[in-house]
């Protein structure tokens, strides 16, 4: 067991046999303490590094204690950290290479889908990897796309289909993009305006105006899929508009749209503001569907492999934390402030815990309403491509396998997850069932051809 | 007589203000619901807590104003900054866009005003470009400039350049012939004529152009920042709109009005400085 006496504690004696002075050695003290508190290996590694450094700065332990007593531990910590790259040294000590670029900008849209990459900020997971990250709230997906293309953002929150579309040069200039992890699965819903309480059957939706956050979004593809299964042509019988998620509730209230397939918290917010009700959760269409992703341009990854690996680890760690239902209430509180989502805590709590009011007078309980499984299945990307082909966004033949495996960094995700002690799945593709219909990833062309309503 | 008049006007203003406040209070006041435990559904719907949305009462409004103004320069990360910092960002953008526009528009306006040939040659371009909404340039700017901060400055530039250009050209072109003739008789050099005769003569018109431009720039920056986001008073409005917090939006509207008025007064004072009586 290593020496984990707090080097910033003026009362602790780095020269004494142990930190409390009652044991023959520090290891005896530790084994006594381990039974009471469990410290994970990383925290332990951090204090060993800091302890070694503080020791080097103050060879005389009495001088260290006097210094800390005089200025206070926090000031000392800040002062030492300002001259010595503690974060980088800690990263090095954990056999991680120093990041090429330390100051990174990550864009995000203020929705619960972004939970892992936001959460890594207040929890200082980025800092622990030796990075200084600004997470920057962005007004809409088109702006996210432009800011990533312009290199204003180093990495970003994306919709799962966006990196595929940008890599193909569809809807923007072509630039190779990659998906590192999926941010969230499920967590979207179809919300309808209160006046449509009696129009629950999609066959009654002819002439409705719906909003989705972006053209290349799971929202657009799922809404199209859903209405088409009910015999409604999404291009002819209804109107689908692109509206940035934060503006959906205001538009629903103003009567500009009849409903939307949008991200949370804006479905729950519509219920909370008593302007709409939740028609269904997208989980009911495809349980485990991806929604948002975390990624960067291929160029950034090539030029800054270590920075990117550090981001990868920070986001995976935050995702693992977010998956635990026990943490969900705390998470709701930590992402609610104006710096992140700027939403009322009760709304976020309902989204994250899955115990929610549906706007029709019922309390529903669905703990799987949203989850943060980061694994970027290839099959997800293939399904997305199949819908892009189905609705005519892609013309001609599609190199299904190449595209999928180029854009989604599944093997890297698995490598990092294994290194961090998580248990990633061993397969690369898995069965997808959308509204009862099975998608065979080996025959996507036949899948596209099998639909009655399509543009392909 | 004059004094009592302004006193009476002042009193009337206060009475009107108080009457409006009273009307506001009466329109937004909702009696507190009391009694009876809430069901879980009602609790989830937020019946037990005060919601951020909805029209605020004057008292809530006052509280918000006090809260923002008591700590205008806080900085809680890139997405949450005090109102003072946000206004400073907006003013910096407007300032740099406006200055650039002045640097281009005033010399060019001078040229156009002094040369009837140039005036007629450039007129069609100006007439086509002038009525374009500055925000319509935004996607193009984002694509070509590849930087959102510079793009918003560009949008300010493009909206404030036209009034200054046209007013400068008009002011320069309509300098009294007699003065120019006198200058010619005295064999004054070109530069000297431009700076000592034409500039002072055209200054009031140029100033009017600048005042109009500044007004437009301040209108446009709010919309531009709502579009681009990040920082500025427009971003503040957008961020609070996301949260459907009307109280904060109304506060931002008030601040936009106050700053806009201050800018206009400033240019009004400058205008007085250069005005002359013939």
Number of strands of chain B: 0
Helix percent of chain A reads 40-55%
- So how many helices of chain A? 20
* Classification by helices and strands of chain B: mainly alpha
What's the CATH topology label of the domain at 83-274 in chain B? MetI-like fold
Overall pLDDT confidence of chain A: 83
Structure notes:
The complex is a heterodimer of chains A (456) and B (278). Chain A has 456 residues and is an alpha/beta fold. Chain A folds into three domains: 1-84, no CATH class; 103-185 and 290-449, Periplasmic binding protein-like II (D-Maltodextrin-Binding Protein, domain 2, 3-Layer(aba) Sandwich); 188-284, D-Maltodextrin-Binding Protein, domain 2, CATH 3.40.190. Chain A contains 20 helices and 16 strands. In chain A, the strands form five sheets. Chain A has a five-stranded mixed sheet with strand order 2-1-3-11-4, sandwiched between helices. In chain A, a hairpin with a 5-residue loop joins strand 12 and strand 13 (363-365). In chain A, helix 2 crosses helix 5, helix 3 (61-71) crosses helix 4 (73-83) and helix 11 crosses helix 12. The model of chain A is unreliable at 33-39 (pLDDT under 50). By secondary structure, chain B is mainly α. Chain B has a domain at 83-274: MetI-like fold. Helix content of chain B is 76%, strand content 0%. Chain B has eleven helices and no strands. In chain B, helix 3 (58-70) packs across helix 11 and helix 6 (138-145) crosses helix 7. Chain B is elongated, with a radius of gyration of 25 Å. In chain B, 33% of the residues are buried. The model of chain B has no long low-confidence stretch (mean pLDDT 85). At the A-B interface, strand 2, helix 8, helix 12, helix 16 and strand 12 of A face helix 2, helix 9 and helix 10 of B.
């Amino acid at each position: 067991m290593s020496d984990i006496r707090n080097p910033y504690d003026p009362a602790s004696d780095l020269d004494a046999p142990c930190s409390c002075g009652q044991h023959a050695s520090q290891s005896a003290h530790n084994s006594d303490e381990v039974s009471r508190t469990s410290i994970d290996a990383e925290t332990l590694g951090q204090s060993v590094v800091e302890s070694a450094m503080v020791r080097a700065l103050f060879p005389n332990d009495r001088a260290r204690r006097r210094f800390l007593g005089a200025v206070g531990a926090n000031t000392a910590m800040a002062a030492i950290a300002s001259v010595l790259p503690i974060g980088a040294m800690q990263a090095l000590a954990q056999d991680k290479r120093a990041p090429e670029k330390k100051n990174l900008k990550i864009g995000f849209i203020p929705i619960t889908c972004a939970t892992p990459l936001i959460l890594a900020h207040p929890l200082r997971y980025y800092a622990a990897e030796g990075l200084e990250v600004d997470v920057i709230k962005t007004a809409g997906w088109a702006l996210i796309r432009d800011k990533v293309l312009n290199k204003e953002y180093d990495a970003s929150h994306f919709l799962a289909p966006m990196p595929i579309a940008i890599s193909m040069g569809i809807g923007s200039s072509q630039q190779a993009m990659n998906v590192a992890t999926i941010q969230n699965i499920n967590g979207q819903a179809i919300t309808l305006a209160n006046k449509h309480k009696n129009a629950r059957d999609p066959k009654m939706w002819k002439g409705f105006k719906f909003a989705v956050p972006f053209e290349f979004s799971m929202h657009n593809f799922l809404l199209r899929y859903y209405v088409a299964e009910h015999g409604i042509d999404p291009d002819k019988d209804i109107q689908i508009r692109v509206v940035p998620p934060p503006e959906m509730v205001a538009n629903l209230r103003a009567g500009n749209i009849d409903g939307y397939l949008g991200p949370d918290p804006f479905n729950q917010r519509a219920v909370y503001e008593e302007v709409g009700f939740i028609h269904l959760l997208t989980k009911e269409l495809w349980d485990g569907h991806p929604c948002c992703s975390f990624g960067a341009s291929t160029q950034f990854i090539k030029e800054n492999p270590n920075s990117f690996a550090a981001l990868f680890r920070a986001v995976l760690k935050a995702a693992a934390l977010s998956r635990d239902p026990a943490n969900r209430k705390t998470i709701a509180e930590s992402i609610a402030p104006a710096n992140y989502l700027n939403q009322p805590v009760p709304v976020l709590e309902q989204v994250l815990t899955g115990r929610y009011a549906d706007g029709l007078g019922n309390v529903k309980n669905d703990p799987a309403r949203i989850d943060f499984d980061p694994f970027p299945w290839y099959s997800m990307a293939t399904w997305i491509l199949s819908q892009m082909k189905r609705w005519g966004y892609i013309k001609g033949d599609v190199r299904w396998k190449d595209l999928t495996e180029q854009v989604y960094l599944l093997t890297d995700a698995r490598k990092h997850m294994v290194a961090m002690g998580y248990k990633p799945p061993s397969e690369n593709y898995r069965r997808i069932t959308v509204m009862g219909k099975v998608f065979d990833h080996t025959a996507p062309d036949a899948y596209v051809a099998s639909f009655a309503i399509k543009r392909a | 007589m004059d004094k009592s008049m302004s006193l009476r006007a002042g009193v009337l203003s206060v009475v009107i203000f108080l009457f409006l406040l009273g009307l506001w209070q009466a329109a937004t006041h909702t009696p507190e619901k009391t009694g009876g435990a809430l069901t879980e559904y009602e609790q989830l719907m937020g019946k037990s807590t005060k919601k951020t949305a909805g029209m605020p009462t004057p008292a809530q409004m006052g509280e918000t104003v006090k809260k923002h103004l008591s700590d205008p320069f806080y900085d809680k990360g890139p997405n949450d900054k005090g109102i003072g910092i946000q206004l400073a960002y907006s003013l910096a953008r407007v300032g740099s866009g406006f200055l650039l526009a002045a640097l281009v528009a005033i010399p060019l306006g001078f040229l156009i005003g002094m040369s009837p040939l140039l005036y007629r040659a450039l007129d069609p371009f100006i007439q086509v470009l002038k009525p374009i909404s500055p925000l319509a340039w935004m996607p193009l700017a984002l694509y070509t400039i590849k930087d959102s901060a510079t793009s918003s400055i560009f949008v300010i530039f493009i909206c404030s350049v036209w009034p200054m250009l046209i007013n400068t050209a008009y002011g320069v072109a309509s300098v009294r012939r007699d003065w120019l003739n006198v200058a010619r008789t005295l064999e004054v050099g070109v530069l000297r004529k431009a700076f000592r005769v034409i500039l002072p003569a055209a200054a009031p018109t140029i100033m009017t152009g600048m005042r109009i431009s500044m007004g437009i720039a301040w209108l446009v920056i709010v919309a531009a920042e709502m579009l681009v986001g990040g920082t500025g008073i427009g971003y503040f409005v957008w961020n609070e709109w996301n949260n459907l917090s009307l109280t904060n939006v109304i506060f931002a509207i008030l601040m936009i009005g106050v700053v806009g008025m201050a800018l206009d007064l400033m240019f009004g004072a400058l205008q007085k400085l250069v005005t002359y009586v013939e």
